[in-house]
UniProtKB/TrEMBL annotation:
Alphabetically ordered keywords of this record: 4Fe-4S, Electron transport, Iron, Iron-sulfur, Metal-binding, Transport
Domain 4Fe-4S ferredoxin-type intervals: 670-702, 739-767, 812-845
Protein name per Swiss-Prot or TrEMBL: Oxidoreductase
PANTHER family hit by this protein: DIMETHYLSULFOXIDE REDUCTASE CHAIN B, OXIDOREDUCTASE
Lineage of producing organism: Bacteria, Pseudomonadati, Pseudomonadota, Alphaproteobacteria, Sphingomonadales
Keyword Lipid biosynthesis recorded: no
Length: 858
């Protein structure tokens, strides 16, 4: 019989190499099996010259190997040298084919493993588990025996593939070895994790290479780069954004691949479909554990999800006794984490059962303010057991997750957050319960949320201020999850994403439909509902179709059109929070209109049959739906009746509505319009705006576009998801309690908001000095006189002094935009100052209705 090693380590990446180095230092009989002819194949395959980061910076490194941030070549060189110095027993070109236990059969150990494919189909296999020692069979036929096995094989050998048409073409690759070998090409990088960002930056680093580089990001642009690049390290994300601003490459936000063809790629963007040049695609869209091989070793996974990780003990031991899993395969991909795990697992195998993980002190500090004497392991298990969205996480994933989250204790009656507070974090209840106050004037009107559930999801989804006050109903423990951690959680743990979507869907339906519904009433509807992303211009309902599903608009907005006289006529505008599609369900028959996305949107698709059963069981809900339906039926009848009588008015109204949507009303919450039939050009609106804002007008009446008699001046639309908030370094742009988007005094004048606004409503202007008081003018002649515009006065009377500090203040500019005259009694000054009533501020859902058409044709 061949030698039986104390431990065999499979894979020489950072985790496996660190484990083998510790075994060598402890003089344990060991072997490191590496399928290639070099150490650390994943790092070896990094692009040449790549800068490798050593994060998290606060985490202490435990390893017999050195690791500091630096170039790929330098790090590999140090690792190779140290491995040789330690006398690590490495067997190269040793690819493992199977691992089988040779000890006694474990009682009741025939395990049925269900594997779920991408298309949803499943296969079931039976695996017999044995005890150690383990026979490790190599592809060469050689068998290696070991008492314990450490799997450190990572996931890079099992990349996620592009599934769009053309995704299998030869110019689609999943790795970049040397960016400097790629010249004069149009390149699209898919994926904005660390690998995708580093590939894109490497390809665009030297202008002499002549590459045109585009990187696709499914997330929207945000002022906080961690929100836009949830799976990347923050320094990488910031560097990418800087390269974009410098023109080295292009980041395409809210963009996905639709199809690939030789020389071209077609994209689904926020504003519709776009086809661009593309000579090469580098897809860095993650990878999945090599599940078949791992399960063949008798190791169970945390769930049936393709992206799930193996079930492990705190000491990294799998469900197969004596087989340990560390590194990326355990759900911990960062190099420093992996190296610490390699050190720790060998210490445990060698009998050091009391060794605590390197992140233990950090987590102890996180839990220090909670009541009760629990260890870190006990707190983590309590959180995972009690909080639904954390159920699917492994212990290692949960440890990393908590480093970016906070555990808090609230006494009964303590306010967790107030209505209209800023905040986009998500809260999960580990113990106790909270009350959501639905009526700020009546504390007794509350909705209870119990242990295990979440709250704050509206802020997470929309980014808006808190919609209600939440107080602790009893002493409770909550985990506050940062937006970045919540986004990362949803991307990496499918069960968490489904739970958050289910809860947010249930609450939106209950809030929208009311009528005494309970969670039990809508359970079937929620379980069968699907959240769909809809591109601008795409239809969710088509006139004449026979389907019966109902749609709730979650994010974005929709427009409703009907074909009249062979032409599509605009009927209405539906903002987020609306629902549509109930007419065909209740009345039967075909769809009577088409509903399409005004901007990129998200909808909840509700199964028609499931919703019909709720309607049948709840007469009050059916009655409400019938009333909503009658209003829509009246609209359709009115348009039909007028198609011959004044078709010109119908056509004009429809084209006008489409024009307004194209000018941003599809994503607006409040917009200024001017009726040119009433406007006399007095400019009182501009003057009033200036007088209300230190002499700086936020309005340009003459600028902007017109259609027929309706003019859209250059003034803020207060978009539902403001473009201007993206990439604001001091985070100076916020949304007020009435929906107004405003810029506070922390503005540094960088101009990013001006560049990001698609409607040209922001300008950079000098900040005028503070106006002297009326008394100062009366007694000392200081300041503008009555009727004298303060801005013109300050321009005329402000002079440079020669003092660099004071003169710099005179030159400093800030971003100027409409704030809807927030805090000024009486509302927007521009509207109040208009002598003819030509200027109006409107909400799109109130203005874009058929009631206007009725008035036009009356």
């Amino acid at each position: 019989m061949s030698e039986v090693y104390k431990v065999a380590i499979i894979g020489s990446g950072p985790a496996g190499m660190s484990a083998a180095s510790r075994a060598a230092q402890l003089r344990l009989p060991h072997v490191l099996l590496e399928k290639t002819d070099h150490l650390s194949d994943t790092i070896y395959k990094y692009q040449k010259g790549k800068h490798v980061m050593a994060t998290p910076s606060q985490l202490v490194l435990r390893s017999d190997q050195e690791f500091d941030a630096g170039k790929r070549e330098d790090i590999l060189g140090r690792w190779n040298k140290r491995t040789e110095e330690l006398g690590v027993n490495v067997k190269y070109n040793a690819e493992v084919k199977s691992i089988k236990g040779t000890g006694p059969t474990i009682e009741g150990s025939v395990q049925k493993i269900v594997t779920r494919a991408r298309d949803g189909s499943t296969t079931t296999t039976e695996v017999q588990r044995f005890a150690p020692p383990y026979a490790i069979t190599l592809t060469s036929g050689e068998v290696v025996m070991a008492e314990a096995v450490v799997l450190a094989i990572g996931t890079q050998g099992n990349p996620n593939l592009m599934r769009c048409p053309g995704g299998d073409l030869p110019h689609v690759t999943y790795q970049l070895d040397d960016p400097y070998a790629v010249l004069d090409q149009h390149i699209v990088v898919v994926g904005t994790g660390d690998a995708g960002i580093e590939n894109a930056r490497g390809l665009a680093e030297d202008a002499a290479q002549g590459n045109v580089v585009t990187i696709l990001n499914r997330s929207p642009k945000s002022a906080n780069v961690r929100e836009s690049f949830a799976t990347a390290k923050e320094p990488n994300a910031k560097a990418l954004v800087e390269d974009d601003a410098a023109g080295k490459l292009t980041i395409r936000y809210e963009t996905e691949t639709k199809s690939v063809e030789p020389g071209w790629i077609t994209l689904n963007t926020r504003d519709g479909e776009e086809r661009i040049r593309c000579d090469r695609i580098i897809a860095r869209i993650g990878s999945a554990p090599p599940r078949g091989f791992v399960e063949g070793c008798g190791i169970e996974f945390a769930s049936n999800d393709r992206l799930a990780f193996p079930t492990l003990s705190p000491q990294f031991e799998s469900t197969a006794p004596g087989i340990f899993v560390i590194g990326a395969l355990a759900g911990y991909p960062l190099i420093k984490h992996c190296m610490n795990q390699g050190y720790d697992v060998i210490e445990f195998i060698n009998g050091n059962a009391d060794l605590k993980p390197a992140d233990e002190p950090l987590l102890e500090a996180k839990f220090a303010g909670l009541p009760g004497r629990r260890s870190v392991a006990e707190w983590l298990e309590l959180l995972r057991t009690n909080i639904a969205i954390l159920n699917g996480m492994t212990t290692l994933q949960l440890r990393e997750f908590m480093l970016d989250s906070d555990a808090r204790f609230y006494k009964a009656g303590e306010t967790i957050f107030e209505k209209n507070d800023p905040g986009s974090s998500l809260f999960a209840i580990a113990d106790g319960s909270v009350h959501v106050r639905i009526d700020p004037n009546d504390p007794s009107k509350v909705v209870s949320i119990e242990k295990g559930s979440i709250f704050g999801e509206v802020g997470l989804i929309s980014g808006r201020r808190r919609g209600a006050t939440v107080v602790a109903a009893s002493d409770c423990i909550c985990v506050e999850i940062s937006r970045n951690a919540a986004l990362k959680l949803q991307s990496q743990v499918p069960s968490a994403r489904r739970t958050i979507e289910r809860i947010s869907t249930e609450r939106q339906l209950l809030q929208m439909f009311g009528s005494g519904l309970t969670p039990d009433d809508v359970r079937e509807v929620v379980e069968t509902a699907k959240i769909m992303s809809v591109r601008a211009g795409d239809a969710i309902i088509t006139e004449g179709a026979d389907d019966k599903d109902v749609f709730v608009i979650r994010v974005g907005s929709m427009i409703v059109e009907k074909v009249v006289g062979g032409k599509p006529v605009f009927l209405s505008y539906l903002p987020a929070g609306s629902y549509v599609g109930e007419m065909a369900l209740i009345d039967g028959g075909q769809r009577t209109a088409t509903v399409r996305a005004a901007i990129k949107s998200e909808v909840i698709k509700i199964d028609g049959e499931a919703f019909a059963r709720v309607l049948a069981a709840k007469p009050a809900l059916l009655e409400r739906a019938r009333k909503d339906m009658e209003a829509r039926r009246a609209t359709n009848a009115f348009v039909e009746s007028k198609k011959d009588g004044f078709s010109g008015v119908v056509d004009l109204y429809s084209e006008q509505a489409k024009f307004l949507v194209s000018q941003g009303l599809g994503e607006a919450t409040d917009v200024l319009l001017i009726d040119e039939r009433l406007c006399v050009g007095c400019d009182n609106c501009e003057k009033a705006c200036a007088d209300s804002h230190d002499g700086l007008s936020r309005l340009d009446r003459e600028a902007g576009k017109s259609f027929a008699h309706l003019h859209v001046p250059t003034s803020c639309r207060h978009c539902e998801h403001p473009h201007c908030m993206a990439d604001c370094p001091p985070n100076a742009i916020h949304r007020g309690p009435d929906g107004e988007v405003f810029i506070n005094d922390t503005c540094i004048g960088c101009g990013n908001c001006q560049r990001n606004c698609p409607y040209g409503v922001i300008r950079m202007d000098k900040v005028p000095p503070k106006k002297p008081s009326l008394l100062s003018w009366l007694f000392f002649g200081s300041g503008p006189g009555p009727g004298e515009p303060p801005y013109k006065w300050s321009k005329k009377n402000t002079k440079y002094t020669g003092d660099p500090v004071q003169d710099d203040k005179l030159d400093r500019k800030k971003a100027i935009k409409c704030d809807m005259c927030a805090g000024i009694e009486g509302g927007p000054s521009c509207v109040r100052a208009c002598p003819t009533g030509a200027a109006i501020r409107v909400s799109p859902d109130e203005f874009l209705t058929v009631a206007r058409l009725e008035n036009e044709g009356a």
